[in-house]
Design a protein that fits this description.
By secondary structure, the chain is of the alpha/beta class. The protein has 23 helices and seven strands.
């Protein structure tokens, strides 16, 4: 018997992108219409992002006010507005599997976007920006020059960048480290010593491209906190997790990265190490997206069961052995932005749980999309829409009136911080939650 709505935990089917039906135009069009018709009758997701208002407005303005009145070419704006944040699937939709309606809106948008890519309809610049390892190595090598040229105050060069590349001149772009975190780790791993060696705790930090190339401080904070708690720490960065390629619907490239990175990280797992990720998107890729793209790959399955987010791991230490003493009060409260890709991991609000270990701390949580969505928040064509989605989130953060804003997604934190010009956020620069634990330890 068909059930209306579902109280069961959502499940996701493997992404069968090599099946000929995956990109079959007639079958894809039929599935788009089936899903859009269900969404049209429900409308619970109307306030999540711009995909749903676009869809509902098109239907309401159509001849018969139904999906069948839409032309297939009208689907593209709905797909283009999706940032693959997964929030409709994880938090709103009552019809996700195991419900009979079997809806997975984000992965349907990914399927459509893959078809667009095959037909050469996706823009080329975001695809080039997705080549993180190539681009970032150049960025680190010439960090002073690149950071100067890309600074928002450099109006002349930013205007040229906007005209040639399409990166909005109003966007604060991430700065590059002067050295990678991998190099920092090699040079400092023996200087930062254990306080109390815990023989049962061994981790390898999967640095992630953003920490390795753009925000070394997050990695340094994680290293210091883990070593203070007696954890043996190693580091590995075999390459990007492939999330930027996923956003550009380059699924074969994601699979290539998954096989490459998992092979390296599994060598550590086989030695008894847990793999620790430092950004929410990378944790989501290793735990969930890789196994969905490679459901029969035993290496990927094994790795996914041995991956933990840094917040998740510190909370695990606290619950089992207890953290070492030394956490002190920090001035001002903390607003935790529960990033979409942290929520999509379905592990609870581990950033909040970890930060609650700080004595007498005031913590508030904001669970709403920042709207950045990878290149979505960077490109001129979509930047205003990213701001539109992020503004209510930034407004909630402002109303909490705390000194610090912490997010497991560095791009979300950067985007929300930039929205202070519209919402007067009083927070210091957005930080990763582990950086506040390091601050509390006075590390």
């Amino acid at each position: 018997m068909s059930k209306e709505g579902s109280t069961e935990a959502p499940i996701r089917h493997p992404i069968d992108f090599e099946n000929p039906d995956f990109l079959n135009p007639e079958k894809l069009d039929a599935e788009m219409r089936r899903v859009f018709d269900i969404c049209h009758g429900c409308r619970r997701c109307f306030n999540l992002c711009d995909s749903f208002p676009k869809l509902f407005d098109m239907i309401d303005e159509s001849k018969n006010e139904d999906v069948e009145s839409l032309k297939s070419e009208q689907f593209e704006p709905v797909v283009d507005a999706c940032t693959l944040c997964d929030m409709c699937f994880m938090t709103k939709c009552p019809y996700v599997p195991p419900h009979d309606f079997d809806l997975d809106f984000p992965h349907l948008m990914l399927r459509y976007r893959t078809a667009q890519k095959k037909l050469g309809k996706l823009p080329s610049i975001p695809a080039q920006l997705a080549q993180i390892d190539r681009n970032a190595k150049i960025g680190v090598m010439f960090s002073k020059l690149v950071n100067w040229a890309s600074n928002i105050k450099n109006k002349f060069l930013r205007k040229i960048l906007e005209i040639i590349v399409g990166i909005d001149k109003r966007v604060h772009l991430p700065k590059y480290n002067s050295e990678t975190f991998s190099n920092f780790f090699k040079n400092n791993k023996n200087i930062i010593n254990f306080e109390n060696l815990n023989k049962n705790r061994k981790v390898v930090i999967y640095t992630t491209c953003f920490v390795n190339f753009n925000k070394k401080n997050t990695g340094v904070a994680a290293l210091k906190v883990l070593k203070k708690n007696g954890v043996e720490v190693q580091e590995a960065y075999p390459g990007c997790c492939g999330m930027p390629f996923l956003e550009q619907a380059d699924l074969p490239k994601v699979v290539e990265q998954a096989k490459k990175v998992s092979k390296d990280l599994l060598e550590w797992v086989d030695k008894g190490y847990k793999v620790i990720t430092l950004t929410a998107s990378c944790g989501l890729m290793l735990k969930f997206e890789w196994p969905l793209l490679l459901p029969n790959d035993e290496n990927v399955k094994k790795l996914s069961s041995n991956v933990m987010d840094i917040d998740e791991y510190v909370v695990d230490i606290s619950k089992n052995e207890g953290l070492v003493e030394g956490l002190g009060e920090i001035d001002g409260g903390i607003t935790v932005h529960h990033a979409c890709h942290a929520r999509a991991q379905n592990m609870g609000i581990k950033a909040r749980d970890m930060l609650k270990l700080i004595p007498n701390v005031k913590i508030d949580v904001v669970e709403r999309c920042a709207g950045h969505g990878g290149t979505f928040g960077v490109m001129k064509e979509t930047h205003d829409l990213a701001k539109k989605i992020g503004r209510p989130t930034a407004r909630q953060i402002k109303n909490k009136n705390n000194k610090y804003m912490a997010s497991d997604c560095p791009l979300a934190g950067k985007h929300l911080k930039q929205l202070e010009t519209d919402t007067n956020i009083s927070n210091d620069e957005a930080v990763h939650p582990i950086e506040l634990i390091a601050k509390s330890y006075r590390l």
